[in-house]
């Protein structure tokens, strides 16, 4: 096998350069002289994650498709800590990315099975309150392009960055209770009735009809005279702005009637 470098990283103070090779070795080099200092042995598959510690220049994290996460002391060539991402009933999960927290006390990883792994010091009791499965209901919604090649959400015809905050759902698209919906930025201070998503059947791009969160649940709004949902209001506002721009362009491109009457616009 011809050796190939798959990843490269500097340590915190730039004294060392660490390279990952496709023969599963990590190598530590002196960045000033180019001298090879250590071969780090431990991984059994290719490594695509090398993460230096935020302030300790001795420490480097590596993670790979073998499910292993190593904490290395690159000055000694040793591995003080090791984590193996074993998933019950499914074998190991390949680790795709890792990052240290700013204080260096924790690191977070994402794996091939959609898990977020948080390792470090302290108690895990606070994390146990969070549901095992959390997705935004818009994560896998199809996108389309308009005539100007701008990206729009296929269902609402809105630009994704103009859409209201999404709802939290499980892997099957079932919404979580309101207490979890308040974890989404932009929904912290919403009333309870605004945290109940509206489920409906929607045809996706391949023609299949599935049940999805399609908007915000309204609680007898027609009877109570309440405002429509945030989503519907934003759609209406964007449509009005588009109509005004279209009408303005038409008026400027052609001369208006001489009797002073305005050209009617599309409602």
UniProtKB/TrEMBL annotation:
SUPFAM superfamilies: WD40 repeat-like. Signal peptide: none annotated. Residues 240-267 are annotated as: Disordered. Pfam families: WD40. GO terms for biological process: cytoskeleton organization; regulation of cell shape; regulation of transcription by RNA polymerase II. Residues 240-261 have a biased composition (Polar residues). Keywords: Repeat, WD repeat. PROSITE patterns: WD_REPEATS_1, WD_REPEATS_2, WD_REPEATS_REGION. WD repeats lie at residues 1-39, 40-82. GO terms for cellular component: nucleus. InterPro entries: Bromo_WD_repeat, WD40/YVTN_repeat-like_dom_sf, WD40_repeat_CS, WD40_repeat_dom_sf, WD40_rpt. It comes from the Eukaryota. This is BRWD1 protein. The gene is Brwd1_0.
């Amino acid at each position: 096998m011809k050796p190939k470098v798959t990843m490269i990283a500097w340590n915190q103070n730039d004294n060392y350069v660490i390279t990952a090779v496709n023969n599963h070795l990590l190598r530590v080099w002196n960045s000033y002289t180019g001298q090879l200092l250590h071969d780090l042995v431990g991984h059994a598959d290719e490594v695509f994650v090398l993460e230096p510690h935020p302030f300790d220049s001795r420490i480097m994290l590596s993670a790979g498709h073998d499910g292993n996460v190593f904490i290395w002391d690159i000055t000694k060539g040793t591995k003080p800590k090791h984590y193996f991402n074993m998933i019950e009933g499914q074998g190991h999960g390949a680790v795709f990315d890792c990052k240290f927290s700013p204080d260096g006390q924790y690191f977070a990883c994402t794996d091939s099975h959609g898990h977020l792994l948080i390792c470090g010091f302290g108690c895990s009791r606070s994390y146990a309150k969070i549901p095992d499965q959390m997705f935004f209901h818009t994560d896998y919604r199809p996108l389309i392009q308009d005539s100007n090649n701008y990206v729009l959400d296929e269902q609402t015809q809105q630009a994704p960055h103009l859409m209201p905050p999404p709802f939290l759902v499980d892997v099957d698209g079932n919404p979580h209770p309101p207490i979890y919906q308040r974890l989404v930025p932009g929904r912290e201070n919403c009333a309870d009735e605004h945290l109940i998503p509206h489920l409906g059947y929607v045809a996706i791009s391949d023609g299949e009809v599935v049940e999805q969160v399609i908007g915000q649940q309204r609680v007898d709004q027609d009877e109570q005279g309440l405002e429509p949902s945030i989503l519907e209001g934003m759609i209406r506002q964007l449509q009005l702005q588009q109509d005004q721009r279209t009408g303005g362009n038409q008026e400027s491109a052609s001369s208006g009637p001489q009797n002073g009457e305005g050209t009617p616009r599309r409602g």
